[in-house]
Write a structure and sequence with these properties.
67 strands, Immunoglobulin-like, disordered N terminus, five-stranded mixed β-sheet, 53% strand, mainly beta, eight-stranded mixed β-sheet
Amino acid sequence: MNWKHWLGSAVLVCGAWMTLTASTEAAPYEVQRDDQAIVGFYDWETKQTTPYPAGLSKYLVLQGTSYEKTLFLFQDEYNESENPYYLMDAKTGTSEQVDMPDHLHGVQIIDENHLVANSFHDYHVLTRQGSKFVISDTVTDDRSPSVRWLSPNRFSLHRSGLADWYDVQADGTFKKVRSVATTDFSPLTGDWIVDLSGAAVLKNVETNQTYELPNTRTQQSSQGAYETADGLYFQLGERDTSKKNMSSSSLYYFDKQTGQIRTLVDYSDDLARQVFHDGRVAYSVSGQVTMMSFADYLHQPIAIDDLTADQTAFLEKTVIEPKIELTRIDGTKALLALRDLVFSGNIEQQQGNYVIPTSPKRINDASYSAAYTAESGLVFRTKTDYQYKRYLTADLKQLSEVKEGLYTYKLNIGQPDVWVTATRVDGTRLSSALSDADGLLILPLSTTGLLGEKIKMTVGDDHFFDQAHTTEWTVKGYETPFLKKSTNNNFKTVTYQLESTVDGGTYTVYAGKKKLITVPAKKLTTLTIPYANDLETYRIVRSGEYASKSLSLKGSTMISSTLSHSALYDGITDEQTLIEGALDFDASYGKLYIDGKYTAYIDRKKTRIFAIKTKPLKVGRVVRLVARKGTQLQVSELRVVAAKNPTLKSYTTALSTRSQSWKMKATKGNTIVVTINKKRYTKVATGKTQTMTFPKQKRGTKVTVYAESVKHRKSKTFTLTVK
């Protein structure tokens, strides 16, 4: 970097004039503050702070700096009378009050005698005349361009796809150097830029030659460059939400001879803060800046890595020797001594050795970390995930048998935090449980429907233990009662024959919750119970030392066919002329009997719901339907009962000589009768409101109405006299 010499300018320091001087190769400075108050200038290289000039306000506003960050221009905006400017040398801590034209901003210090500033569309060179800076040259650019400084005395006015480069000359004038076609760029050094018009490319503005970056990027900014005779090192930064400081940097090397760009470091948050043109770099570590040469920079660590492969299986108590490899910015590698590392996580140090710990529980996410602190103060870490294994000592010695059904097995397997898994032979998972801190296992297991089958019980696994132990078990229990034969004995009793492959337990017949009979269960068992119309609700249960098995008698003894009757009567009425009913869907046929006399045959192939015509039957007679399905019979019977008197409700309350109708409602199927002078008018009742019509009658004529059934039962009679 070209660091300027002060040439003996006269400076007023706290009321006394003195000569300013500045050494070459000065490191950049930054303004150091305590809260908002300025306390001095921090030297990045020496890490020393030059005190702020005494006698000046510590709340001046920074208006501009030099490219090298050694000269600073402040303004006292709180001085309402003058708003004076102060030019300060950060290395010596000296200050000179200077006068500036009004309404300037964007100040850049070229040297102690020249400044650049702008006002609206005008860009000015200001040249010192004593303690005043006056405008010596102006460039007007009405594009409202952005200003980018390329070197201590070169800048760019950039807008609308074109960047005009200007030099500030020693005589205080502008000199246009070139125009560069680009929509966006980031300056590097000399004639090199990163052109960001599209995908980022390295570009030489002198030759207009471009070179593609190894990785496609679009949003980059320069963090400095260092050019040698053979090539160009340049560092780019970009926003990166995956990093802790929300940004990452990449370092590249361009070989001038081959025209190739090589990535030295990609997407890192451990690169230098700034690369300077003179071959120095600045690191920022915990808010402190460290300067070093570029050669030392290339030799700095950039990452460490454990050569142990992730997910390597380590058995407890195993002694390991991690091999931690250091990678430098230049790509060279070296193994680090373990004494230079700090380990943490699932690892123990015992007598100078690193050992996999012993744990009473599984470690699902086992890992250890190694940390290395470089001379720069940067800390590099690597994390190694491994598969933690324990020795398996658990067993199922306390398990004597596996029963069919849902059972909870409580066993002490002798080791905590061990999975036990039950599966079918084909691998289908049945259940699993984890032993507690005392080695107690509580395993709920359902083996319903697996009677006689083999299942597997696996203790441990190959992932968390040195082995897994699997045993086979035959599921024991009772068979579901098998109904070999059922006999309906004249609808008085039903006899069942049950078969089983083994003896044991008992058979119990239940009618709902009521026990009817209990007998020992043998290979062939016969039991008889009284016949009931609700046999389909019965069940036979086999019980004993194993899970109970139940057989529902629904569908195994009787089918379901019915005779229909009105909800008002508990049987068929003596006025019905149709016997109605329905056969079971699975019935073969049905036969209708009246007082035991065969009356009709119902063919299920032709119909299921039937209506048989008949004359009104006498009270007390029995109508019986016998339905058959294979060897099963079902009887449904109803008695004939006396019908009730019909009902009639009148809605007409008066008749006149003009009346020709009567409005009423009567029981469906009965006959409505209107009588006038012994003449009857009739109509069959629909069960809904109806109107009976008749001729007009003379005053004084009596009209009666009532309902009558087929058995001549009558309803209440209503009589009205014509008015």
